[in-house]
Amino acid sequence: MSDPLSIQPILQPIDASLSLPGSKSITNRALILAALAEGETTLEGALFSRDTQIMVQALRQLGFRCEEDAENHRITLRGEGGHIPEKSAKIDVGNAGTAARFLTAFLALQPGGVYHLDGDDAMRQRPMAGLIEALRTLHAAAFDFHGETNHFPFTVKAQGYQGGTCTVDASASSQILSALLLAAPTGNRPVHLAAPGVRPAYIEITQKMRESFGAPLISEDPSEVFSLQPIRYCQPKGGLYPVEPDLSAASYFLALVLIHNGRITLPGIGPKPMQGDAAFAETLGHHGLQIEREQAQWLVRKDGTRKIQLEAREINFNAYSDTFLTYAAITPLLGGPVRITGIGHTRRQETDRISGMAKELSKLGQPVEEAADSLYIKPDLDALRAHAKAARSAGQLLAVETYEDHRFAMSFAILGTYDLFEDGQPWLAIKDPACCGKTYPKFFDVLQSLRHD
Q1: Which of 70, 348, 413, 445 yields a CA-CA distance of 20 to 30 A from 14?
Q2: For residues 300 and 253, is the Cβ–Cβ distance under 8 A?
Q3: Which long-range contacts (CB under 8 A, 24 or more apart) does 3-6 make?
Q4: Residue 394: Cβ-neighbour burial (10 angstroms; 0-12, 13-18, 19+)
Q5: With a threshold of 0.85, does the pTM exceed it?
C-alpha cells in the first residue's frame, strides 16, 4: 500500500484540453471479441492499466499472440476463430471483475480445457455464482472449488457451448450476462438466456460491440430473453477497433470544472457515446455545468459569475453507478440534501461502496443515512471545516480510506482540490493513491498538470 498523498488545492479556474484514458470496460470486451474473431485486430485508444494488463497476460497464457504499444495506446491481438490454443493454464485475475467474468465464460468454449483461476483476496469475495450456475446449466463447464463454493479459486473444466436455455442471475453484476453474450454463441446451436432485472447500460455496450465484430443484433423479447444464434466473429472494419474514452474518468474532471469554474476540452468523445456514464453530465448540468457535445469532443464550461445551483435532490444513479462516488464525494460543496438511489449492487464491487462512502463522509463531519440501496446526505460545509481545522491543530490532515478502490481515491481527490481555508494549503490526504492503477494509473499526475497557478 502506498503512502497517503496530500491534495494541493487548485486556486485558479480550470483551462485545459485533456485526453482521457480508454474505457476499461470497452478495452476488456474488445480483447475478448478480438480473441474470438479470426485474424488480427488492433485496438486504438486502449487502456493500459492493471485490469487490462491482467486480461492481456491471461490471453497470452492461453496462447494468443498479443502486441502492445503503450505509448500510442494500441493493442494488437490475433484471434483464433473461436478456439483457445492452450488447453490448460493457471490464471490470476487480480481484482478485475471484467477479466474474472469474461475469462470464465470464454474458457468454457474449449472442450477438454482445464484452467485454474484465482484472484486477490477481495476478488475471492466478489459474486460469481450467477455465471457459474449458468455455465453448469448450459453444460458448458464443470467446476472444482478450492475454497468457498462459487468463489475463486476454482478450476474450470471446459465442455464447450452446445446450445440450450438458461435463466441467468445477473443481479449482482451485469458483467455476468455480458460474459455469456460474448462467448455462448461460439457453439453450434442457439442459446436462449433469460435475465430478469439485469441493468441495461453495460448490456447495450456489449451488444453494440458484438455487432462491430460481425454479430447480428440480439433478439430480446419482452420477457427479457436474449436469443443468440451460433456465430463466427470476424474482424471489425479495417481490422481496427477504436476504444471510447472512459466516461467514468471524465466524471472527475466535470466535477473539477463545476467546483473551480473555467473550461476543459475532452477530445475523442462523440455526441452519443456508448457508455451510460455520459448521463453524469446531465446530473452536474443541474448544478450549472455547461457541456457542448460536438462531433469529436466535449467542451465543458462553468462561468465564474454563476454560483453552483443548490437545492434538495433525489438522483437515481442505477444506470451510471460508477459515478455516484464522484457526486457523493463533492456533496459538501453542493449545499442542499441529496438522496442517491439505485446503487444497491455497488455493495458487491471492489468494496462495499455504499458503506465505504457513508463512513468516509461521516469522518468529514457530513450527516449520512445509509440504506440497502441508497445514501441520504445532508451537506455541512461548516462541519467539514471544523473537522479539517481540528486535524490541522493536531499537525495532521483529514485522511480518506480508499478500500483498495480506485474510485474512492479519485472522487475524494476532487473534493481535496477545493481551497477550504482560502490559504492554498492542503487539508485532505488520500490513502493508498496507487490503487488508481486499476483504471487510471496517471490520474494524480494529470490532476497536478491542471494546476497552473
Answers
A1: 70
A2: yes
A3: 4/397, 4/399, 4/429, 4/430, 4/431, 4/432, 4/433, 5/429, 5/430, 5/433, 5/444, 6/397, 6/426, 6/428, 6/429
A4: exposed
A5: yes
The per-residue pLDDT for range 58-111, each reduced to its tens digit, is: 999 999 999 999 999 999 999 999 999 999 999 999 999 999 999 999 999 999
Task: Enumerate domains of the chain plus CATH numbers.
Answer: 5-21+245-449 (3.65.10.10), 24-242 (3.65.10.10)
**How large is the C-alpha radius of gyration of the chain?**
22
- Continuous segment of H or E residues that includes residue 241: strand 240-242
Q: Three-class SS of residue 311?
A: coil
pLDDT at position 219 over 70: no
pLDDT of residue 83: 96
Residue 453's pLDDT band (boundaries 50, 70, 90)? very low
* 8 A C-beta contact, residue 127 and residue 350: no
Residue 134: enclosing H or E segment and its boundaries? Answer: helix 129-137
- The DSSP bridge partners found for residue 338 are 313, 377
Q: Which residue in 102, 98, 93 sits closest to 179, CA to CA?
A: 102
Cis peptide, bond prior to residue 236, ω within 30 of zero: no
| Residue from 92, 322, 380, 432 carrying the catalytic annotation | 322
For the stretch 383-420, pLDDT in tens is 999 999 999 999 999 999 999 999 999 999 999 999 99
pLDDT of amino acid 1: 62
Measure CA of the first residue to CA of the last residue in the chain; give whole Å.
31
CA neighbours closer than 13 Å in the CB half-sphere of residue 255? 29
- Three cell numbers, residue 116: 485454474
Angle 97-107/24-36 helices, nearest 10 degrees? 20
Please say if 120 is a catalytic residue: no
CA distance 218 to 11: 50
Q: How far apart are CA 91 and CA 283, in angstroms?
A: 40
Q: What is the pLDDT of residues 116-138, one digit of tens each?
A: 999 999 999 999 999 999 999 99
Confidence of residue 361 (pLDDT cuts 50, 70, 90): very high
Going by C-alpha positions, the residue among 49, 127, 25 that lies closest to residue 435 is 49
Three-state secondary-structure class, residue 334: coil
Could you tell me what percent of the chain has a pLDDT over 90?
A: 91
Beta strands in 32-85 (DSSP E): 38-44, 66-69, 74-80
Q: What angle do CA 278, 311, 390 make, to 5 degrees?
A: 95
